[in-house]
Specification:
16-stranded antiparallel β-barrel; about 500 residues; Porin; 3 helices; disordered N terminus; two-stranded antiparallel sheet; alpha+beta
């Protein structure tokens, strides 16, 4: 028995040696399990802190946006091009003020070039818009392309190089001027004063007065400069009813910010009714007959010779991520087809935008914009020669035309926007003069589909590719492709992401 004791102790020692690693492994496994639990708990706490911080940041951003919107409503500034969707109505939630650059910062192309300071200053900006492309149409300028700033020929087009001057005159007034240079299809340089006005800043009862050369507050697009458009060219209905250069003329506009819980504003403009920027009114149309009749431009002889344009616009948030803007407009004034003849244009517009609650620099977003117009043109009686027709006798008649466009924009990633626009214009009936002289191309039905893709390398440059499918009654189908490129300097630099 004594000889077995060493063997027994050896067995016990061996068992202990075997058990020690097992215990160590079990202890290590327990420590790993504890560390994993601690790691999971810390990760959960980190995720919770991130969520709370994000919620606080979003709440603070909403407060900042709300306060900035209220500030813009009480002291409006010139509307600038928002991330491709632009919003044009003054003093809306989408109007963006042009801040003065901080003196301690170096100037960049996205900041105004400022002259002066204090209560009187001027910001200077420059924007250049160009296009290159081609079309199967033989009548590009004035044919498939109705806008004065549209691509007007195969090859390159200078759509506009525009200088902007804006600022505070004193504590009571601010001023603005937009001077544009462009080349026609013949290579001739054209200079036009798009805007030049003085505006009050401190009238009581939420009133504001603007006077000078002003873009008429009719619809959404008419008050936008071409560089703020979401497409290369103007919609068909705007070009046909409001003219190649849009509706604008010398005059005055008074607006009243209605004291409602949401943005609500009434406008009334009184302007001269003659000239090429009053196309459906007293415009001689460059000597070309309109509505089958030679036109006389005339001049202002009484208050009744003026152009009157009332408008009502409103805006409110549908949800935290959706905004709706709507408006109704009218334009009433004499036309040049005869004595005691007038034109009436009615318009409705709608703009809806969704922006993700987690948007970064404004993306992603989706926006929809629609405008519809109806024109009633009272054409005077006429007897005489029209073009190749002699001794034509035309009765007094009222001609009704209508049209609309809808455009959808999708900002699917930062700096990239895909767009699709549909246009349609038509007449309500064939006029008496058309039965005698033949169908008028300026009244015939036509429609157009325009997809495009826009890339904003930064907030002061833009590259856009667009295709147009045009279908015109009595003419047929045409295809056009345009590549647009643009730069912005100074006060115009407002492509906001």
């Amino acid at each position: 028995m004594k000889s077995l004791k060493p063997v027994g102790w050896t067995a016990v020692a061996a068992a202990c040696l075997v058990a020690m690693p097992c215990g160590i492994r079990a202890q290590a496994a327990d420590q790993i399990s504890q560390l994993k639990r601690q790691l999971e708990q810390m990760q959960a706490n980190f995720d919770r802190v991130v969520r709370e911080q994000r919620q606080q940041i979003e709440a603070l951003q909403k407060q900042v946006d709300k306060l900035e919107a209220q500030q813009r409503v009480t002291r409006p500034t010139e509307t600038v091009a928002a991330s491709p969707a632009p919003t044009t109505a003054p003093r809306t939630a989408e109007t963006v003020a042009s801040p003065a650059p901080a003196p301690s910062k170096l100037w960049s192309p996205t900041e105004p070039i400022r002259v002066g300071g204090g209560k009187g200053y001027m910001d200077i900006g420059l924007v250049g818009t160009f296009a290159v492309g081609g079309s199967t149409a033989s009548d590009i300028e004035g044919g498939t392309q109705l806008g004065g700033h549209d691509p007007n020929q195969r090859g390159f087009t200078v759509q506009g190089v525009e200088a902007n001057f804006q600022g505070a005159v004193d504590p009571y007034f601010r001023g603005n001027a937009n001077i544009a240079l462009l080349l026609d299809s013949g290579g001739e340089t054209q200079i036009e004063l798009e805007e030049g006005w003085l505006e009050t800043m401190s009238l009581p009862w939420n009133l504001q007065v603007r006077a000078g050369q002003i873009l008429t507050d009719f619809g959404r697009l008419n008050t936008q400069h071409p560089h703020a458009w979401a497409f290369v060219d103007t919609p068909l209905v705007n070009g046909r009813f409001l003219g190649a250069d849009g509706l604008r003329n010398p005059g005055a506009r008074v607006s009243w910010l209605v004291p409602t819980p949401f943005y609500s504003e009434l406008f009334l403009a009184v302007q001269n009714s003659q000239g090429g920027t009053a196309h459906s009114f007293r415009d001689d149309n460059g000597g070309t007959p309109l509505m089958g009749r030679p036109l006389t431009q005339g001049e202002v002889k009484s208050f009744g010779d003026m152009l009157f344009t009332p408008r009502y616009a409103l805006s409110f948030d549908l949800t935290d991520t959706q905004t709706l803007l709507a408006g109704i407009s009218g334009a009433f004034g004499p036309n040049g087809s005869g004595t005691d003849t007038d034109t009436q244009i009615y318009g409705v517009d709608l703009y809806w935008k969704w922006k993700s609650a987690h948007a970064h620099a404004g993306f992603p977003f989706v926006s929809l914009q629609t405008e519809a117009m109806l024109r009633r043109y009272v054409a005077g009686a006429f007897t005489g020669d029209v073009g190749d027709f002699t001794d034509v006798s035309l009765p007094r008649e009222t001609l009704t035309d209508w049209g609309l466009y809808s455009q959808l924009l999708w900002g699917f990633r930062k700096g990239w926007v895909a767009g699709l626009r549909g246009d349609y214009v038509a007449r309500s009936e064939q006029a008496a003069y058309e039965q005698l002289l033949g169908n008028d191309p300026q009244r015939l039905p036509r429609w157009r589909i325009s997809p495009n893709l826009t890339w904003y390398p930064s907030e002061f440059s833009k590259i856009r590719l667009q295709y147009n499918y045009d279908d015109r009654e009595d003419i047929g189908v045409d295809h056009s492709v345009w590549l647009q490129f643009e730069f912005l300097l100074g006060a115009h630099a407002a492509h906001k992401f």
